[in-house]
Amino acid sequence: MSLRNISTPLFALLAVLLSAIPLKTQATPAFTRQTGMQCAMCHTDFPALTDTGRRFKLEGYTSSEGTTEWPPISAMIQAGFTHTKVGVPGGAAEHFGPNNNIALGQASLFYTGALFGPSAGSFLSKIGVFAQATYDGVGRSLSWDNVEIRYADKGTLLGKDATYGIYLNNNPTMQDPWQTLPAWGFPFSTSPLASSPSAATLIDGGFSQQVVGIGAYALIDKTWYVDVGAYRTLGTGFQRAMGVDPTDEAQIAGLAPYWRLAYTTKLGAASWEIGTFGLVASTYPGRDKSAGKDRTVDFGFDTQYQAAIGNNNLLALLTWTHEHERWNASKALGTAENSKDSLWKLAATVDVLHDKSYGGALQYFVTDGSKDTGLHDGSPTGSPFSDGFVAELNWLPFHKNGGPSFLPNSDLKLSLQYVIYNHFDGTSHNASANNTLFLGAWYSF
Asked: What is the dihedral of CA 363, 364, 365, 369, to 10 degrees?
């Protein structure tokens, strides 16, 4: 995609973000430039957050102890080499061969920090922004990515100390401070040229960058976290202006409620979180209102254990999501075989980082649910059943002490990842053909 084909409104959005430069700022790697802290203060195996990173997010991206003339801008590049056990006839994607491809996965620009300077007043200085624009190196397109505006403050709720706020964002679950939910969940990076199971719950990226949502949250007594919001679909013209293709997307009828409730506590040098989350949406399939509405209810459970032992980190995650589906419209339109279906997904992950530099992770994942030849037409049996493992080795050479002298506030992760499938889209036959070796480089600066 040439620069001449990038939409004017998207450039306008970036211009607004870049022009709102406060005197007191902070961001992803830019946060280290404001505080002098290394990336390891806020992240374990990035983008997973430590307690410090969660506090920064809860406080609306505006907490900082330092000042600088640097604007709150940072960037990242993800690239890698992909080998699948069996190559893809005709090419893994347009402009790529059947196998053994090197590709720029994505390049992103971030603005993360206070929207106004401290001189703007007590209210305006508590408004922060997380904004990401991404160039897709495989699809060769530029679009907006995760974007959020927050107002955050501290006070008392129910007689307890609390951090609370309101937010506006374009991706359900991106606001979550534990980042165990789909928007930021493990695996944190994957090959953009590998096949992946076709079945996914709606909350697992089904509305990403297609919606706008508003909500309110509070962390009470550093123990109870509550988040309630609602989302609606953005217009097709606006989505195209932001680089998103609205073709065949599900359009929310009215509002889609979202909720999150979690309990967290300290266990010595470790922290533990357990919670629930969900989304309810009535939708027009393919934005077609002629046959009525479908209804989807997602309900999830998650837990996270995080421990710091010297310079070593341990992160254990478990996430389970169940989806109940009523296909009143989709069955009438012939895109679903059943009038009712269900789908569920479970992922269990252990991620360790030694000396904040060398790490490894292992995840078992499984998705299963009702057989429906209309919904799961890529499956030979109509079943969504897929399961397997993600094994990963990581090296973060700059994480502990910072980057090279010319970019001291930067971070690099080099990964060797192997994805193994026991079942893929309802069958074990040739499932291993989708097994993927990915050598990835992720540089943030």
From this structure: -160
Q: For 59-113, how does the pLDDT look when each residue is reduced to its tens digit (9 = 90+)?
A: 888 866 555 556 778 899 999 999 999 999 999 999 999 999 999 999 999 988 8
Question: φ and ψ at 88, to 5 degrees?
Answer: -95, 115
Token duo for residue 386 = 């897929």
* pLDDT tens, position by position, 162-182: 999 999 999 999 999 998 899
Which has more confidence, 329 or 30?
329
Nearest Cα neighbor of 347 from 180, 205, 106 is: 180
| Residue 373 CB neighbour total at 10 angstroms | 14
Average pLDDT over residues 228-253: 97
Does the pLDDT value for residue 192 go beyond 50?
yes
Amino acid identity of residue 43, one-letter, is: H
Closest CA to 13 of 126, 167, 129, 140: 129
**What are the structural domains, with CATH classification, of the chain?**
3-444 (2.40.160.10)
In this structure, what token pair is assigned to residue 218?
A: 């509070």
**129-145: pLDDT as tens digits:** 999 999 999 999 999 99
Quick one: pLDDT at residue 33?
52
Tokens of 332: 């009438």
HSE-CB for 18 with a 13 A CA cutoff: 10
pLDDT at 407: 78
